[in-house]
Amino acid sequence: MFMAQTLGDAFAFAAIEEIKEKMKIVKHKILVLSGKGGVGKSTFSAHLAYGLAKDETKQVALLDIDICGPSIPKIMGIEGEQVHQSGSGWSPVYVEENLCVMSVGFLLSGPDDAVIWRGPKKNGMIKQFLRDVDWGEIDYLIVDTPPGTSDEHLSIVQYLSSSNIDGAVIITTPQEISLQDVRKEINFCHKVKLPIIGVVENMSGFVCPKCKTESQIFPPTTGGAEKMCQNLNISLLGKVPLDPQIGKSCDQGQSFFSEIPESPATSSYRNIIQRIQEYCGLHHSQEKLSNQGME
Amino acid sequence: GSRLLCPLFSSSTNDEFLKEKRAQIMSRGLPKQKPIEGVKQVLVFASGKGGVGKSTTAGKFLFALTSIFIITKAVGLLDADVYGPSIPKMMNLKGNPELSPKNLMRPLKNYGIACMSMGFLVEETAPVVWRGLMVMSAIEKLLRQVDWGQLDYLVIDMPPGTGDVQLSVSQNIPVTGAVIVSTPQDIALLDARKGAEMFRKVHVPVLGLVQNMSVFQCPKCKHETHIFGADGVRDLAKTLGLDVLGDIPLNVNIRETCDAGQPIVISQPQSDMVSLVLCT
Predict the structure, then answer these.
(1) pLDDT, tens only, B184-238
(2) What's the pTM value of the predicted model, to 2 decimals?
(3) Using CA atoms, how far apart are residues A251 and A85, in angstroms rounded to an integer?
(4) How big is the CA angle at A125 (ends A120 and A126), to the nearest 5 degrees?
(5) What cofactor does this chain's UniProt record say it requires (chain A) (predicted)?
(6) Is A155 annotated as a binding residue?
(7) How many Å separate Cα A31 from the centre of its chain?
(8) In the predicted model, is pLDDT for residue A113 greater than 80?
C-alpha cells in the first residue's frame, strides 16, 4: 500500500477497485519504462505491439500515458484519429483487427495543442484511460510511459496495484548518462515492487552504410547496459543497433518490421519480443499455480 | 456592483472591469513572479522531447559563453530535471552544496560555471519518486534558496515535457527567452512544437530552435549519414517563424566527454549559437 502524499492519493484507492474489475479481462500487462528520455521507449512499445499482434489469435492493446508528448499515434500511423464514446465506454483506435491504441494524442485538436497540465489532472486522465476505455478481452496490454519517475509512473503502478502487472521492460542507450537515470528507474521498480522483465540496450552501434565500419555513436564508456545488468543481476533482453530507417519508418507511421525486414535491428527486436512472450507465459503459469495453491 | 450604481458607464468599461476581476481571481494561489536577486538574464533550454541533447547543448552554450568574451561573463547553470539530473555528470561535479551564512545553498563550480542540481542533493542511484506538488516546491528552492551571487546569465536546463516544472519556472521568475533543442526527426519536432506553444501560452519569448544530432560522419570513410533525418528543424522553424540558432552534428567526441565530465573544444557551431542567442 502507498503512503498518501496528497488527498488525491486517498481517493485513488476507490478507483483501484473499479480498475481491478476492468483489468480482469486483460491477461498480461507490460510497462515500458526508462529513466532517460529519447532512448526509444515509444518506438519499442509500438513495435512490441506489432510483434505480439503478428499472432492473429492474440488481442493486443497499446496505452500511451505520455500526456505531454504522446508519440504513439504518429508512430502507429493513426494521427488525427478520434476517440468515440459509446455505452460501454471510450473506444480505442484500431490499427489492425487485433491491435488497438489509446493515447491523449487522439483527444487533442491539433499538432500544436500542448497539454500543460499539473500532476493531479494527468492522474485523472490515466485513471480514465484504465477505467473508461472499452478495451475488450486483451491478451497483452502494453503501457508506454514518459521518462522519469513521476506522477504518471506512480499513478499507473498505483491504479494497477491490485491487477497484477507482469513486469517492466526498461529501455536505455549505452551511454553512462542514460544508465545513470536507468539505475534510478530500476530502484523505482524495486521500491514499488514492480518485477523487471529485463533491459533493452537501444542505439547500440551504427554500421556505416557505405564502408560497413561499425561506430559506437553513443559509446558505452562504463560498459553499457551489459555491465549494468551484470552488476544489478537483471536480464539483458537484447541490443538493438541504430538504423536510420527506423526513425524514418516511425515518422511515417509504419512498422519497420515490414519496411526493413532485413535490418539487423529487426532480428534483434524479434528475439527480444520472443523473450518477453516467454517471460509472460512463465509468469502466467506461476500465477495459476499460486492461485490453485490458495484454494 | 458598479454596474447597478453607475449605469452611465459604457459596456466596454464593464467588460474591462470584469476582465480585471477575473484575472485577479484566477491568479490567486499562483506564485508571484519575482526575479532572482543578482541574476540579470534567464535563458531556458527546453525541448518537449527527451534525449535530444538539452543538457549537452546548454553546457556547450555556457562553455562557449565563458570563453569567447574578453570580459568574462558570470554564468550559472540550473538543472531543473528533478527526476533525471544530468548536469552533475556532465560538469564533473559531485557533493552536497555548502550553506552560506544566510543559509542559502552555494552552487558548485567548474569551468567557471556555477551549477545547481537535484543531483547534488540526492544519491546518484536514488530515484526521486515525487508527485508534482513536491516537485514545485523543490524547483522553488533550487531557484530562490541558492546563493547565485551576481550573474550575467542563468541558464535553466529543463526536463522533457510540458508540465509542472515548466509551469513552475515560468510562473516563478521572469524568463528572458527560451531556446528549443530538437533532433531532425518528426517525432521530436512534434514535441518541440508543443514546447514552443507552451512557452507562448505562458508568455515566454522563444528565441529560436537548435538542430542537434543533425548528421553523422563515419570516422573511417567520412561518409555522411543523416541518422535522425535531415532539415526537420529548419522546416519547423520556418513554419513557426523562428530562427535556427544552431546546427550541431553527431560527434562521438561529445558523448564520450559528456560521460567523462570534461570540457570539449569550442567548435564553430557553438560560437555561432552563442552569437545568435545573445543577439536575439
Answers:
(1) 998 889 889 988 988 988 899 999 999 998 888 888 888 888 888 888 899 999 9
(2) 0.82
(3) 28
(4) 95
(5) [4Fe-4S] cluster
(6) no
(7) 4
(8) no
Torsion of CA A100, A34, A113, A159, to 10 degrees: 60
Mean pLDDT of A111-116: 74
Sign of the dihedral defined by the CA atoms of residues A269, A71, A149, B126, in that order = positive
**Are the beta carbons of B132 and A118 separated by less than 8 Å?**
yes
Q: Given A120, A176, A188, which is nearest B127 (Cβ)? A: A188
Q: Which residues contact B119 (CB under 8 A, 6 or more apart)?
A: B79, B85, B86, B87, B88, B89
Is the Cα torsion angle B124, B128, B134, B140 positive or negative in sign?
positive
Q: Which three cell numbers stand for residue B267?
A: 567548435
Residue A100 known to bind ligand: no
For chain A, what percentages of helix, strand and coil (3-state, to nearest 5) are there? 45, 20, 35
pLDDT one-digit tens code per residue, A139-153: 999 999 998 888 889
- Label residue B279 by pLDDT band (50, 70, 90): low
Report the 3 state secondary structure along A113-134: CCCCCCHHHHHHHHHHHHHHEC
Instruction: Report the chain A residue with the minimal C-alpha distance to residue B226.
Output: A244
Residues B115, B116, B117, B120: what is their CA dihedral angle, to the nearest 10 degrees?
100
CB atoms under 10 Å from CB of B273, counted, come to 24
Interchain contact A17–B (C-beta under 8 A): no
A289 CB-contact burial (10 Å; exposed 0-12 / middle 13-18 / buried 19+): exposed
